[in-house]
Write a structure and sequence with these properties.
With about 220 residues, this protein is mainly α. The chain has 7 helices and no strands. The N terminus is likely disordered.
Length: about 220
């Protein structure tokens, strides 16, 4: 008998509870892979934008020129670019207000950048808790389906005078499939979560370092007449 057909047959013959567990795990796996591909693209784009922006920012370009470029109508700022725009916009607004202490100007710009930084990190952190949840609970959900299936297999022996391995083997096999599906859902989710968390931590460090470095530049400008 074909292996795939035998496994499919076992799934069809499983109890309702075991089938529900399998369906739940398959749905979690599909959702996980969807988030994995989208998050991989999203973080890759954020890193690419950061590399390009930092290269231009430290090339000696005037901050006012960079601000005008990034705030143009036909330009859609992303990631670190939004942090820069928030800080420089607030700094310019405070300077134009007049009679504002230089330290107040810089602190106001720093707060604006911190707010935008938090928004950006919240956006990048989306779906990561879901991957962590799938990675941590999927094996237990699969184990529940396995225990339920094995329990039903042994309970069915209560009406049989002579029990044989052939009588319980199909029930045990279909129950173990639930554990296999649980591991199939959990392992990629755990690997992806650890990978993305590491990349997000690295990106967070770069964002925070940029904020501190930009604050130093703004302090110099704030004290210039």
């Amino acid at each position: 008998m074909n292996t795939d057909l035998s496994i499919f047959h076992l799934i069809l013959e499983a109890s309702f509870v075991v089938q529900f567990v399998m369906l739940l795990l398959v749905a979690a796996s599909v959702a996980s892979w969807t988030f994995i591909f989208s998050k991989r693209k999203e973080l890759g784009r954020a890193i690419e934008i950061t590399d390009e922006f930092e290269e231009e920012f430290w090339s000696g370009v005037a901050l006012a020129d960079l601000f005008r470029k990034l705030s143009a109508k036909d330009f859609e700022p992303e990631g670190i670019e939004k942090i820069f725009l928030a800080g420089y916009k607030e700094f310019s607004r405070m300077r134009q207000a007049g009679n504002v202490e230089p330290m107040v100007q810089v602190e106001s710009a720093q707060r604006a950048m911190r707010i935008e930084l938090s928004r950006e990190l919240d956006r990048l952190d989306q779906h990561l808790p879901f991957l962590a949840t799938v990675g941590s609970i999927s094996p237990y959900i699969g184990l529940f389906g396995t225990v339920w299936g094995i329990m039903n297999s042994f309970m069915s022996l209560s009406t049989v005078k002579q029990a044989t391995l052939a009588q319980v083997a199909p029930g045990i096999a279909e129950a173990l499939i639930a554990t296999a599906i649980g591991l199939f859902a959990a392992i990629p989710a755990v690997i992806a979560y650890n990978r993305f968390s590491s990349r997000l931590d690295s990106l967070t460090g770069r964002y925070e370092l940029f904020v501190e470095e930009f604050v130093v530049l703004l302090q110099r400008q704030a004290h210039m007449k």
